[in-house]
Automatic annotation (TrEMBL):
Transmembrane segments: none annotated. This is Transcriptional regulator, GntR family. It holds the Pfam family GntR. PROSITE patterns: HTH_GNTR. SMART domains: HTH_GNTR.
Length: 467
């Protein structure tokens, strides 16, 4: 198929040209002028026609690709996607070391590295003691003694759980996906914070669910906004939220707001998925939603954010009446948590290793936050999250857009995630970026934050962002 002679008519006015090209492309697709399967002009040809740089067209195509509008293959070209050819998934933030030329990773919410050689040796001992049973299929996602250990640990964290109610998953994301599969059907509305995880947005796209934004502030989800959303759409019966150290803002729902949420759930017959993966990092935090509403809340957590992401051990505690549905979804998506990893996790939850690593992670986060406060304190214009948050939500000065700032910072060797990636309502994307403090060493983190501070003091016009 020959490339389309598509020639965007760009609006007048001073704005980033790459964004204008992407927006005209999106409008032409929506209007049917570029039907699915249309092959777009090569980037070099379009740049010549528009009399702009090749880099400008490259960024426009990249932005359209992030929005799920286009796709392509090397040697075949770039094509307009249709509803049947696009999963609606935005690319995951780039991984440091994977072709990123040594860029410092502040884009991914990886924990600080607190597990060391001692944990490697302890892992080997736990596997030896577990025996050959770890190579067998397990009932109900995990061996009974592994679920027993998880229930004891969850109960100590303030989450009511018995071995019969706990299911294991391959991490918290797998647990959330299974909960959505069990509790929602294609076309259903799922309420969530106005800023939410790109993973949640991807899950909704894959399952055919409609995410609806609920306004939040520095204290988390606003009860009055949730009430208004439920009154506007009585069919909305499911809330997916992160009440503890919300990603990306770091906000934690206060005890008072949790009680307000409990009252709203009873009034509107609301079911809740509580992603509590960061909750263990808060010392003496507010009660879990599961503790307040055991019959309405599916609680999901894991050991990943305390420093053990490779262990891939997630825990899901659904209401009793929802257990079989969630179990079926876990069987479809992963069948069971890997028994060797579950054996290690169970051993460490019982012998105090997990508790010790939580303390070490809190200390590491505290050190990184102190460094960030010192280097960026004068730039943190929004309310800073609590000290336990390993990421910062950085509002940008006037003139900057989140993706432009992230792109300019990447050219300086630092990766961050723009606010657009978290926005449920794309018409109201905040001009901000998320900075994750966990992945790099303290020395590299200082280098990265120094670059962030320097870029905040410059204007996009002077850097040629609009060219």
């Amino acid at each position: 198929m020959d490339p389309s002679p598509w020639m965007p008519v760009l609006p007048e006015g001073r704005r980033p040209l790459h964004r204008a090209i992407a927006e005209v492309l999106e409008a032409d697709i929506a209007a049917g002028r570029l039907p699915p399967g249309t092959r777009l002009p090569p980037q070099r040809d379009l740049a010549w026609r528009l009399k702009v740089t090749l880099a400008t067209v490259g960024r426009a195509y990249a932005l359209a690709r992030e929005r799920g509008l286009i796709g392509g293959e090397v040697g075949r070209g770039t094509f307009v996607l249709g509803e049947t050819t696009s999963a609606g998934l935005a690319p995951w933030p780039p991984q440091a070391g994977a072709g990123e030329n040594g860029a410092i990773d502040l884009a991914n919410t990886h924990p600080a590295p607190v597990a060391g050689p001692g944990e490697v040796a302890a892992c080997a001992r736990a596997l030896v003691e577990a025996g050959t049973g770890i190579f067998a299929y397990q009932p109900d996602t995990a061996a009974p003694d592994h679920r027993d250990a998880a229930a004891r640990w969850l109960t100590a964290q303030g989450v009511p759980a018995g071995a019969e109610s706990v299911l294991l998953s391959t991490g918290a994301l797998n647990g959330v996906l299974a909960a959505l599969m069990a509790l929602a059907r294609p076309g259903d509305t799922v309420l969530t914070e106005a800023l939410t995880s790109p993973a949640f947005k991807g899950m909704a796209a894959l399952l055919g669910l409609r995410l609806r934004a609920v306004a939040s502030d520095g204290e988390g989800l606003r009860p009055e906004a949730l009430e208004a959303a439920l009154e506007r759409d009585p069919s909305a019966k499911l809330l997916l939220c992160v009440p503890a150290l919300h990603n990306p803002t770091g906000a934690t729902l206060s005890a008072e707001r949790r009680l307000s949420l409990t009252a709203l759930a009873e009034r509107f017959d609301l079911t809740i998925i509580e992603d509590a993966v960061y909750a263990p990092l808060i010392e003496n935090g507010p009660p879990s939603l599961k503790a307040l509403m055991p019959d309405r809340v599916t609680h999901v957590t894991s050991l990943s954010k305390i420093g053990l992401p490779g262990l891939r051990c997630g825990m899901v505690v659904p209401p009793t009446r929802r257990r079989e549905a969630v179990l079926a979804a876990l069987r479809v998506s992963c069948w069971m948590a890997p028994p060797p990893l579950a054996a290690v996790a169970a051993r460490w939850m019982d012998d105090g290793t997990v508790t010790r690593l939580i303390a070490a992670q809190r200390l590491a986060v505290s050190e990184r936050r102190a460094l960030a406060d010192r280097l960026l304190g004068d730039r943190l214009t929004c309310r800073p999250p609590p000290p336990a948050a390993s990421f910062l939500w950085l509002a940008l000065p006037a003139g900057w857009r989140g993706d432009d700032f992230a792109h300019a910072l990447h050219r300086r060797g630092v990766m961050v995630t723009p606010g657009e990636a978290f926005t449920v309502d794309t018409a109201h994307a905040p001009q901000a970026v998320r900075l994750c403090l966990g992945p790099p060493s303290l020395e590299r983190l200082e280098t990265a934050l120094t670059e962030v501070h320097a870029l905040l003091g410059e204007s996009p016009e002077r850097l040629g962002v609009f060219l």
